[in-house]
């Protein structure tokens, strides 16, 4: 993985492309997708089969990503391994590329005995970054940049609108940030609407 050295510091991401202003960092597991282990199913011939894993998209995932990529530089930051994350993204991005960059387990930082996602190492101004994760402790160093989303465990019946609501909030925050000059201020204004 290439690193960006600027001002004597190293960052995980290369310089931002000029047409982006804001970065949206998204967790993968239990935020965007759920990997269900040992799933038994009936195939097209009526035979009972067992899959090692079944990948379930959170409802509205592809529409959410299509919209968000018009508003943000999209980055995946997962505690998963490179092999696992890349295999999941290959499925998500089968027909369209969404993510500019991908960060893996090796990019996490140890802090007081637990792994966190330190946004200061991305090489982006913190006033221009939002992170969405189902575990709020992972963004504890930059709490004002974070949105804690309810964990997704494959329940596509009761979790139909989460990404739609999140997308609406992010779109509002994004456009308000142009006025405020700091996406964290815009996010603070929306906190009462954000689910946890």
Task: Characterize the structure shown.
There is one protein chain. By secondary structure, this protein is α/β, with parallel strands linked by helices. It is built from four helices and eleven strands.
Labels describing this entry:
globular; about 25% strand; about 200 residues; 5-stranded parallel sheet; 11 strands; 4 helices; alpha/beta
Care to give the gist of this entry?
This protein is α/β, with parallel strands linked by helices and 196 residues long. It has 4 helices and 11 strands; from the N terminus they run βββββαβαβββββαα. A 5-stranded parallel β-sheet has the order 7-6-3-10-11. Strands 1-2 form a two-stranded antiparallel ribbon. Strands 4-5 form a two-stranded antiparallel sheet.
How would the blueprint of this fold be written?
Elements: E1 4-6, E2 9-11, E3 23-26, E4 33-42, E5 48-57, H1 61-68, E6 73-77, H2 82-92, E7 101-103, E8 109-111, E9 114-116, E10 129-133, E11 146-148, H3 162-180, H4 183-190
Parallel strand pairs: 3-6, 3-10, 6-7, 10-11
Antiparallel strand pairs: 1-2, 4-5, 8-9
Helix pairs in contact: 1-3, 3-4
- Average per-residue pLDDT, rounded, comes to 89
Distance between the termini: 33 Å
Helical fraction equals 10-25%
The SSE string, one letter per element, is: EEEEEHEHEEEEEHH
Main structural class: alpha/beta
Number of strands: 11
Largest sheet, order of strands side by side?
7-6-3-10-11
Give the amount of beta strand, in percent.
25-35%
Tally the helices: what do you get? 4
Give the radius of gyration.
17 Å
Q: Low-confidence runs (pLDDT<50, min 5 residues)?
A: none
Shape: globular
The description of the largest β-sheet is:
5 strands, parallel
């Amino acid at each position: 993985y290439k690193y960006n050295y600027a001002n004597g510091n190293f960052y995980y991401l290369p310089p931002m492309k000029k047409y982006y202003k804001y970065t949206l960092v998204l967790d993968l597991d239990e935020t965007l997708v759920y990997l269900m282990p040992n799933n038994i199913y009936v195939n097209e011939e009526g035979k009972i089969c067992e899959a090692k894993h079944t990948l379930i998209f959170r409802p509205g995932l592809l529409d959410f990503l299509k919209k968000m990529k018009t508003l943000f530089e999209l980055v995946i930051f997962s505690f998963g391994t490179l092999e696992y994350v890349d295999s999941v993204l290959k499925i998500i991005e089968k027909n369209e590329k969404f993510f500019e960059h991908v960060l893996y387990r090796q990019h996490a930082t140890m802090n007081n005995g637990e792994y966190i996602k330190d946004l200061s190492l991305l090489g982006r101004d913190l006033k221009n970054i939002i992170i969405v994760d189902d575990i709020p402790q992972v963004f504890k160093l930059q709490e004002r940049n974070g949105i804690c989303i309810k964990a997704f465990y494959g329940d596509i019946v009761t979790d139909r609108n989460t990404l739609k609501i999140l997308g609406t909030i992010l779109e509002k925050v994004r456009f308000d940030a142009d006025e405020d000059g700091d996406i964290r201020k815009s996010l603070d204004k929306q906190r009462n609407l954000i689910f946890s």
